[in-house]
């Protein structure tokens, strides 16, 4: 059994890893566990994602497991500065390599989710019914319209007004949708296989995690 640390930027991703990815990866002999991004001192828990902060945290965590990866949103990087997803991942890997004693590139897999975790939920808009207080036919139609406007959920674009999480909060009546409460429930209802079928980058990442356990 291979122990894999998944560095998460926030509590929503932590709960998603616990409820969805952990049981899914066990079938591949991968024992995954989430670790919330924070400074070695324990301060600044979650959020404030930068390449430097990820590098420091991953280097600190490197020997706490057999393998280490990340689940962070492209939209959330405060130091993105025009870099693409692949450039960010390469810079994270380069930073970990330069700051970690005994670094082995086979054991480190930076992954940046396009554009946000919430985009994955548009795999099946009907699953948003878990947000019961705000659910309605009108909400269902609005979510479906967003999903149908893009080739994949990972293409739902990022900007202050059109990022996936902003779209969801705009569609649901005020206060009826909670990222940390409803997001993981919706993802669990959809299922990892269904998400993989519609989200190619996410699917490729999960396949690499499975390969660490000897299956893909």
Summarize the helices and strands and which ones pair or pack.
Elements: E1 2-8, H1 11-26, E2 30-36, H2 51-61, E3 67-73, H3 85-99, E4 108-109, E5 112-113, H4 117-120, H5 137-148, H6 164-171, H7 179-190, H8 192-198, H9 200-212
Parallel strand pairs: 1-2, 1-3, 3-4, 3-5
Give a verbal description of the structure.
With 216 residues, this protein is α/β, with parallel strands linked by helices. The protein folds into two domains: 135 residues, 3-Layer(aba) Sandwich (Rossmann fold); 63 residues, no CATH class. The chain is built from nine helices and five strands, in the order βαβαβαββαααααα. Strands 1, 2, 3, 4 and 5 form a five-stranded parallel β-sheet that branches. Helix 1 packs parallel to helix 7 and helix 8 packs across helix 9. It starts with a strand and ends with a helix.
Q: What distinguishing features does this structure have?
A:
single chain; 216 residues; alpha/beta; Rossmann fold; 9 helices; 5 strands
Total domain count: 2
CATH second-level architecture of the largest domain: 3-Layer(aba) Sandwich
Q: How does the major sheet shape up? A: 5 strands, parallel
What's the assembly state of these chains? single chain
Helix amount, in percent?
A: 40-55%
Instruction: State the helix count.
Output: 9
Low-confidence stretches: none
The CATH top-level class label of the largest domain? Alpha Beta
CATH fold type of the largest domain: Rossmann fold
Total beta-strand segments: 5
Give the helices and strands as they follow along the chain.
EHEHEHEEHHHHHH
What percentage of the residues does DSSP assign to strands (E)?
Answer: 5-15%
C-alpha Rg (nearest Å): 17 Å
Distance between the termini: 15 Å
- Please state the overall shape, judged from the principal axes of the Cα atoms: globular
Class of secondary structure makeup: alpha/beta
């Amino acid at each position: 059994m291979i122990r894999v640390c998944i560095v998460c930027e926030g509590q929503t991703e932590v709960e998603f890893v616990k409820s969805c990815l952990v049981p899914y990866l066990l079938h591949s002999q991968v024992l995954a566990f989430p670790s919330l991004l924070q400074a070695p001192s324990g301060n600044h828990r979650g959020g404030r994602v930068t390449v430097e902060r990820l590098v420091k945290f991953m280097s600190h965590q490197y020997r706490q497991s057999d393998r280490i990866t990340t689940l962070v949103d492209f939209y959330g990087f405060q130091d993105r500065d025009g870099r693409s997803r692949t450039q960010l991942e390469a810079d994270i890997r380069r930073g970990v390599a330069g700051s970690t004693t005994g670094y082995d590139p086979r054991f480190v897999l930076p992954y940046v989710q396009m554009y946000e975790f919430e985009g994955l939920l548009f795999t099946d808009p009907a699953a948003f019914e878990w947000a019961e207080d705000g659910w309605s036919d009108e909400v269902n139609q609005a979510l479906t319209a967003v999903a149908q406007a893009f080739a994949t959920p990972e293409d739902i674009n990022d900007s202050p007004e059109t990022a996936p999480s902003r779209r969801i909060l705009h569609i649901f009546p005020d206060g009826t949708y909670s990222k940390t409460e409803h997001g993981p429930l919706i993802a669990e209802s959809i299922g990892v296989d269904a998400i993989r079928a519609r989200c190619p980058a996410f699917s490729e990442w999960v396949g690499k995690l499975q390969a660490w356990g000897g299956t893909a």
